[in-house]
Every structure is written in structure tokens, then in C-alpha cells.
Write a structure and sequence with these properties.
homodimer; 155 residues; mainly beta; Elongation Factor Tu (Ef-tu), domain 3; six-stranded antiparallel beta barrel; two-stranded antiparallel sheet; 1 helix; 3% helix; globular
Chain lengths: 155, 155
């Protein structure tokens, strides 16, 4: 175990989500269930220079903080069936570390603002990281979905 | 802007990576460039119950903390060409928030240990989240790769 392994990790938001989803009930279960909705990722000024070359990527990975998450429980029910499932086998926002992750389509880059499609984050969500989506290592279209197989709508 | 938007976010590791990659130079640029290598994600006891039902998923998303990351710079070079690129258009670990993300194959679940393929994390990396990979919303095999197109090896 590395001596430098931290007991906790402190992160600072690099931006904020502007979205039409203002409450938990307004947000879709996955961003891609509402493909007509566009959201904005507003990147704070110290980080804008680091957006260079992003416009060439059709898709991005957005990691954000679910600031309205509730305390987590190890076993939960979901909208997809009535059984209890292990939390890590779900995409519930109510996690030990409430990190949200969405693969989004980059519609437009306007200065410090990314206009994106497919984001389910609530308005005001702190953005922690932006990564380019690389189909060579990120796309596994034939992956099996365990208990969710056949239960979740396709995009 | 929500009144509850935090200036910083504190996360606690839910587990730790055990991997043959002990230094930055030993680790591959992407985990899938070394598909023969297996790593272990050891989940700490308060979180083991939440692993229920994970074994049905062929692939998982692992979010970890790059504990040996260096200070970030907005423009960097990478192994793939000689030009400067915006940091957020790269997968460098040296980010404002050094979060690592890998889509891995779940080879075996043994109690609190996930044996996985495709993880590039260094030994001792704190694990922050485990999510099931959902091809319906996570797989975009035709996404375009911007400046990386044709430069990064296929898996």
C-alpha cells in the first residue's frame, strides 16, 4: 500500500452545469432518454485554455458531483424492477462518492461554454473533469447488462 | 447557481487498486493496450454489500484517484504527436482533478475483490466509484477522436 495513499481526496470544481433539469424529479434517468435536450457546461476561467482541441471530438465524458445526492444505502430499488440491487450495480446518484458520469455529444464549443447533448446532470452541478471519449477504449457495444438487460430503454 | 454548490468536494476511497503497474513508466497509456494483464480492485468492508448483482455485468466503469499525478498544465504534449494540446482533449493523469477512468472487463468477483482486465491504474490507487457499464448509453463506437484520430493504437 503506497505511503501516499490518502484517507480522503479534495477536489475543486472546474465548472458548473447549466441545465433545464432543476429538481431530481425533472431529470431523466439517463441523459440519452431526452436526446432533444441541450445542456451547457460552463468552464471556469483558470481552465479555459485547457479546452483547446476539444472541438474535434464528437463525444466527451463529463464527470460531475451530484450535489443533491442523498445518503447512500448498500441495497436499493430502482425504477427498472421491484427487487433490491447492490448500489454499485446501479447508476443511482446516491453513492458513497456521488460522482455522476455521462457520455455526451459535443454540439458546440463557445468560448468557455460546452453545449452538449445527453447530459442528465441537474442545474448547478459542479463539474469535476472533462475527458475526450475514445471509442477504441471506451466503446463496448456488446457488453452485457446483468439484471438491467432488457429492462432499460434504448437510446 | 444553487446555494448548495460547494467550493470543494471531499471524497473517501471505497477501495484500492492492486496492480502490477508500480510506477508511471510501467503503466500502459491505456489499460486495453495490455489486455493480458489482470488487476484487482479491493473494496473496503463498509461497501462490500453494495457489490451485489455486479457479476452479471461484463464491463464496469472504474473511477479512481491518480495519487501519483503531477501538477497540471493547460497545454501539454503526449506520446501521440509533438504538438501542444489542451489538457481536456487528452487523457493525461495530470489534471486539475486527477480522476482516472477506465472501462474494464469484469473477469471475476471474489468476495470483496474484483478481478478486472483493461485497468491502467497504478498499484495503490484509491478507488472512488464503481459503475455498471451500460452499452445503451455508454457505447458510441462511431465517435470521432479529433486530433487523436489514427494516432492511438486500437485495442
Amino acid at each position: 500500500m503506497g505511503a501516499s495513499r490518502p484517507a480522503s481526496v479534495v477536489l475543486r470544481p472546474i465548472g458548473v452545469v447549466r441545465s433545464p433539469y432543476r429538481t431530481r424529479t425533472e431529470a431523466p434517468r439517463q441523459g440519452w432518454f431526452r436526446p432533444e435536450v441541450l445542456s451547457r457546461v460552463e468552464v471556469f476561467s483558470p481552465y479555459v485554455k485547457a479546452l483547446k482541441d476539444l472541438e474535434g471530438f464528437s463525444h466527451l465524458i463529463i464527470i460531475y458531483y451530484c450535489h443533491l445526492a442523498r445518503p447512500w444505502q448498500p441495497l436499493i430499488t430502482t425504477p427498472w424492477d421491484t427487487r433490491l440491487h447492490g448500489l454499485f450495480a446501479t447508476r443511482s446518484p446516491d453513492r458513497p462518492n456521488p460522482l455522476g458520469l455521462c457520455v455526451v455529444e459535443l454540439v458546440e464549443l463557445q468560448g468557455n461554454v460546452l453545449v452538449v447533448r445527453g447530459l442528465d446532470a441537474l442545474d448547478g452541478s459542479p463539474v469535476l473533469d472533462i475527458k475526450p471519449y475514445l471509442p477504441t477504449v471506451d466503446a463496448f457495444p456488446n457488453a452485457s447488462m446483468g439484471w438491467l438487460e432488457g429492462r432499460m430503454p434504448l437510446r
